[in-house]
Amino acid sequence: MSVARVLSGAILGLAASIALAADPDQAIRSTLNSLEPGLPIEAIAESPFTGLYQVHLKGGRLLYASADGKFLLQGNLYQYRDGEAINLTRQAESKGIAKEINAIPTSEMVVFSPKEPAKAHITVFTDTDCGYCQKLHSEVPELNRRGIEVRYVAFPRQGIGSRGYNTLVSVWCAKDRKEAMNLAKSRENVPAATCTNPVAKQYELGQMVGVSGTPSIILGNGEMIPGYQPAPQLAEIALQAK
């Protein structure tokens, strides 16, 4: 699903044949379905801004629409509160992303856990060929030492069937996933292996929640950090977001 494509269609204007529905939910769905059939709409509800409705898409993304469905908006909605601007869009999207990520069984991840009970966790969309992914992986022991559990999910940047995809499949199908991940992140050969695996599914999930590069780090509250962060800084952020 391309949000940009939806909005570009809206900018050109709605077709005259779209009838005004009896209620906002119907009107907004009619508009969006005419522009992007099959758009994964999870819910439509009033936003905190009077007269503006928020459209929750599967994966956590948000669009805004007028009650009659004739105006669409993509962007951040802020509320001025107690002397600061609160990003309401980011808060809502983070909740949706957290829902999707927390639904992934840890059995489908490659998990590096601290020796003591974890204080917080991060979920990392990773590609084994990514230089900054390798740098982040070298700091996993430090993250563990600081009480952060690191959960890897797959995101082959070059797509399904690429060399990176095949390497990730071999990692997920290895008898010891953590050792295979260590080899891959050290640019060493990972023995080829195949099995029923979640690599393609996780890649599609990453696209749905807005991952565009690696590493993309999802905090416990669903907030996304697009890119590498040094272990001390990342651990502090993760502890604050648990």
Description:
With 242 residues, the protein is of the alpha+beta class. The protein contains 9 helices and 11 strands. Strands 7-9-8-10-11 form a 5-stranded mixed sheet. A hairpin with a 2-residue loop joins β5 and β6. The protein is globular. The protein starts with a helix and ends with a helix. The model is unreliable at 9-21 (pLDDT under 50).
Short description:
With 242 residues, this protein is of the alpha+beta class. Helix content is 38%, strand content 21%.
Name the descriptors.
21% strand, Glutaredoxin, 9 helices, 242 residues, Nuclear Transport Factor 2, Chain: A, 38% helix, 5-stranded mixed beta sheet, single chain, alpha+beta
**What is the percentage of strand-forming residues?**
15-25%
Structural class: alpha+beta
Report mean pLDDT, rounded to a whole number.
90
Unreliable stretches, pLDDT < 50, 5 or more residues?
9-21
Helicity, in percent?
25-40%
- In CATH, the topology of the largest domain is named Glutaredoxin
Judging from the principal axes of the Cα atoms, what is the shape? globular
